[in-house]
Amino acid sequence: MIDVRLLTFNTLMRDDVPARLRALGPVLERAAYDVVCLQEVLHGGSVRLLRRGAGYRHVAVTRAALPSGGLMLMSRWPILRYRFARFRMAGPLRTEQLMRKGAQLAVVETPAGPLAVVNTHLSANRDDDWSDGNRFTRVIRQELDHLARLVRGFEPELPAVVVGDFNVPRDSAAFTGFAAAAGLRDVLAGDPTTTFRPTPRWPAPPALDQVLVRDGAGRPVVASARTVLRDAVRVPDGRELFLSDHYGLEADLSLAGPSTGME
Hints:
There is one protein chain. The chain is α+β, with helices and mostly antiparallel strands. The protein has one domain (2-255): Endonuclease/exonuclease/phosphatase (Deoxyribonuclease I, Chain A). 21% of the residues lie in helices and 31% in strands. The chain has 4 helices and 14 strands. It has helices spanning 17-31, 44-54, 135-153, 173-182, and strands at 2-10, 35-39, 58-60, 72-75, 79-86, 102-110, 113-121, 160-165, 185-186, 209-214, 221-228, 233-234, 240-241, 248-255. Strands 3-4-2-1-14-11 form a 6-stranded mixed sheet, with no helix packed on it. The protein is globular and about 45 Å long. The N and C termini lie close together (7 Å). The mean pLDDT is 93. InterPro entries: Endo/exonu/phosph_ase_sf (IPR036691), Endo/exonuclease/phosphatase (IPR005135), Sph/SMPD2-like (IPR038772). Residues 7-246 form the Endonuclease/exonuclease/phosphatase domain.
């Protein structure tokens, strides 16, 4: 079995973006993640800051000047192929729709063989109400249905990891239904730990960022995950800032190689 360390992190598209990204790059480098999936990377300048600061050789981003969906993947190993699939815009008109949200689908050549990686960011629920009748829940369900179809059809023989800011609670019917429809296991099932930094206006947010996995043909995946990047860091100008309004999720994946089985 070969281990892969992965991070998923919503980097926050506003408030001191250059300072926070300059600080994030060295944090990623020190942590020595093998694969990093980022959300809310909205400008080419942000892509350049992250590439320069983190030092990853292999980067996947569609439309580098204005990254599609705000999604960026960095890897220590070659990225064999990748593409972006946009979700259909629906529901109430909102500024968020300018992000053109969707999913980034990539294949990374790990020492254990190819790994399918899906990085995504779904629409936010501005009402903080995930009941079936809510206007934003309907939008999110449409996006989850689309994502499930993408995952089922994407390199189905490969082991896969699906991560990102789902903007839907881990224990919600919409999310658990998505995981079942996509053929995925929720690595953090039953863990209620929030992935969004509590605020006075939202003192007890749910777990909105997720890590799910799928076994490949003859290549099982063993996985665990935890929240990281919770503390403030010192940025280059001397201030202390939180890296985002989200926490990161760090995942350890153990993969069997295609020719070795479980040996």
